[in-house]
Design a protein that fits this description.
Helices cover 49% and strands 15% of the residues. It has 22 helices and 14 strands. The structure holds flavin-adenine dinucleotide. Flavin-adenine dinucleotide binds next to helix 13, strand 6, strand 7 and helix 16. It is a multi-pass membrane protein.
């Protein structure tokens, strides 16, 4: 291709148009930020909220850091299972239960937009397909419309390939910012990065579509003119080809099926291909450079913040056989997160395999920050695939060989991330926390935070219902001491706590008898939870308790974490709640957490 045709391509008036598109997208972000502002302002009026949920640290205060041999030795025959259960019991059992309502002030409650406009929220929250509500699809299609306008306005993609190329590079900073863990967009709109992942994917697909249109059109011209060899002899064209290949690799390796099966390959190719693509785009066209530099700045900042948020610590691993989980406790990190946040964990042990120690995996924190019981940071990791199975074996071997307090390993944790955004859990009068299987980690930290803030006098919560759905009722067994301690603490903190555990598999009589003695407030029930009835009960109890203490109810929070079918069912129940029930409690708000993106 001659230099004049290249100049013609680069001096295309597309440049100001795509810049205007980015300004339009920034303006849309500004509007969403304005919507999020009232809640952010209310949250940040409390000084403590400025630093919560940003960095892990070790706080002075009660700390339960027993010596590794403090747990009683186990006996021969039934050694493995009894050690596991006893070890878990020991770690979950409270050592202090006496708490009283402190002198803090409860936070102000501001209704969310969804609670203020339930009709609109019902419509936008309707699920069209898993993970995609009407609201999300409206945003995606609006974005596609804007990009098609930018690509096609007064331009034919077959005669003006430069336009599609410009559209593609102009969206690179957008796709990068939406994919970062320390997400500026998420901070502005009060959402964790994982909730914006659907937008990251939608923007990524448009970038890939645009770059392919650009390339196909150019290649068609070259091939029809018999000059296709220029692609390898003219450097800027070769760089363009490299950028195209990187983009297509990104696309293929991000496909859902591939990502589910080979997450680590997806992750590594994603990082390498993105970096290479940005470098190649700069070499291909000078007009791409400002956009690529913006993207590099955003990506670089995210990487620096990740380093700042990374901690190396010693962790104790123990298996919980009944749950098929590994209980990880990091005693020396005990503060800095909010309930519902997660971290990325690397286990620096060759027991994880040759490459296993390099893989970061996300896990929700299952304990409360600055626990008055002295707990450190707790994770509970379920055996799901290769990496988690290796973790389980490592923990299991440790319990065979080392003391019953568990295997000690060095871990690298990066976080905290995600979480409730501008929602202040303790500003609600009631909460119904629904968990399925390993989603219990989210429920544990949330319930515990509600109890602790109430005990400190800085919560409005009067009624908390924890609903846990499990397959096998034996999964409840190792959790009984912890649940009992919650009930005890709820009593002294003047909160009504009800824990209902539902199991779906038929059980043998003798196993059932071992769970006969459950404390009041903890129920084990067969079948699936009836969310609608449970939610009505929570609303009624919350309203009554508020009336008894002459308070206006400030809403009920429904938090749901587990399989997507469970969280979507919970969401449907919230959206379909009748207006009268909704109004009398001051609104019902939904918070969904899924262990996938
Ligand atoms: C925000 C978040 C919080 C989570 N919290 C918990 C928790 O508290 N307890 C718990 O038991 N599980 C949790 N998970 C799930 C846990 O991260 C996966 O089960 C684990 O990473 C699977 O790894 P694997 O190699 O053993 O299984 P695989 O068979 O490789 O993967 C099983 C599934 O997990 C996904 N996955 C694998 N590796 C990753 C990764 N590095 N990042 C994201 N997804 C991955 C795969 O796409 C696949 O769908 C959470 C996941 C997310 C996204």
């Amino acid at each position: 291709m001659s230099s004049s045709s290249r100049r013609a391509e680069t001096s295309d008036p597309s440049a100001p148009l795509v810049l205007h598109v980015d300004i339009l997208l920034l303006s849309a972000l500004g509007v969403f930020t304005l919507f999020a502002l009232p809640r952010a302002a209310i949250r940040l009026t409390r000084l403590s909220e400025w630093s919560r949920g940003l960095l892990f640290y070790s706080s002075a205060g009660p700390r339960r850091d027993r010596s590794p041999d403090a747990d009683p030795p186990s006996d021969g025959g039934s050694r493995k299972s009894s050690v596991s259960v006893r070890a878990v019991n020991a770690s979950l059992k409270p050592e202090t239960t006496g708490t009283s309502c402190g002198s803090g002030t409860p936070p102000k409650h501001l209704r969310s937009w969804s609670a203020a406009f339930p009709g609109l929220s019902w419509l936008l929250g309707m699920q069209i397909r898993p993970g995609y509500s009407v609201g999300r699809l409206v945003l995606i299609y609006a974005y596609i419309g804007v990009i098609l306008y930018a690509g096609l306005f007064h331009s034919n993609p077959f005669t003006n390939p430069a336009r599609a190329g410009m559209v593609s590079v102009s969206q690179v900073p957008v796709v990068i910012v939406l994919g970062t863990k320390n997400n500026i967009v998420g901070t502005l709109v009060g959402q964790g990065y994982e909730r914006l992942n659907y937008l990251h994917r939608a923007v990524g697909r448009m970038v890939i579509l645009a770059i392919n249109v650009h390339a196909i059109s150019l290649l068609y011209d070259l091939v029809s003119a018999g000059r296709w060899s220029l692609v390898v002899t003219v450097p800027y064209l070769t760089w363009g080809l490299v950028a195209l290949v990187c983009m297509d690799v990104l696309f293929l390796f991000s496909l859902n099926t591939f990502r589910q099966m080979f997450y680590h390959v997806f992750y590594v190719t994603h990082v390498i291909a993105s970096i290479l693509m940005m470098a190649a785009a700069c070499m291909h066209s000078p007009e791409a450079q400002p956009y690529v530099l913006a993207a590099v700045g955003i990506y670089g900042l995210d990487r620096i913040l990740r380093m700042v948020k990374t901690r190396v610590a010693t962790a104790r691993l123990r298996v919980i056989p009944e749950l098929g989980m590994v209980h990880i406790e990091i005693p020396h990190i005990n503060a800095g997160w909010r309930a519902g946040q997660h971290l990325r964990l690397k286990v620096l042990s060759l027991g994880m395999g040759i490459w296993g120690w390099t893989e970061p995996h996300p896990f929700t924190i299952a304990s409360v920050s600055k626990s008055p019981r002295g707990d450190g940071l707790v994770l509970m990791c379920k055996k799901a695939g290769d990496w988690t199975t290796r973790l389980y074996s490592l923990a299991h071997k440790g319990m065979d060989g080392e003391s019953a307090s568990g295997k000690r390993v060095t871990v690298l944790i990066d976080g905290p991330y995600g979480g409730p955004g501008n929602t202040v859990l303790s500003s609600f009068s009631g909460a119904m926390i629904v968990a399925g299987g390993s989603g219990i980690t989210y429920a544990l930290s949330t319930v515990e935070e509600l109890l602790e803030t109430r005990a400190a006098g800085s919560s409005r919560a009067r009624m908390v219902e924890l609903v846990w759905s499990i397959q096998n009722h034996s999964a409840l067994f190792p959790m009984v001491p912890l649940f009992s301690s919650y009930i005890e603490r709820a009593r002294s903190a003047a909160v009504t706590l009800q824990i209902s555990v539902f199991y779906t598999r038929a059980q043998t009589e003798d196993l059932m008898q071992s769970l006969q003695i459950l404390p009041p407030g903890l129920d084990l029930l067969p079948g699936r939870p009836h969310f609608e009835r449970l939610l009505h009960d929570v609303v009624d109890r919350t309203t009554e308790l508020c009336a008894e203490s002459h308070e206006n109810p400030s809403g009920v929070l429904v938090g749901a974490c587990g399989p997507i079918s469970l969280t979507e069912h919970a969401g449907k129940v919230v959206r379909n709640l009748d207006r009268q029930t909704f109004k009398k409690v001051g609104g019902v708000e939904l918070q969904e957490e899924n262990f996938a993106w």
